[in-house]
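Here comes a specimen:
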Amino acid sequence: MAAMAILRRAIVLVVVTLFATSAARAQVEPPPATTTPPAATAPDAPPPAGSTAPVAPLSPTLAPEAAPAPPLVLTERTAQEQQAPRPEPFYRKTWFWAAVGVVLVTATLILVFSQRDPRDPPSTTFGNMHAF
């Protein structure tokens, strides 16, 4: 019963989260551009309500003069400098493998010495007492 209540709460939480994110996304997106094709309206007709008139180009007297292009200069490329060598990764260094070896040897020694014969009596202060 408790699992069903938890499942219902989770589903409600997911639905509310999806609804909240879709509403937030709808507010962030810009409105779609409404354009009418140029052939659909006559040039003398006023623009329809709700649309803006296109921007008229500048007259030739107000337009800035084009600057002359800089002269083309061809130069010989120099050899690229050699890049600094990449640092050697830690797993290729000697100290890393020495540390891994020490860990493995230590773990092996612990496992070997912690194993004992199951027929030996337990190492307790009660000694070897047989129940039956």
Observations:
- The longest helix spans residues 2-28.
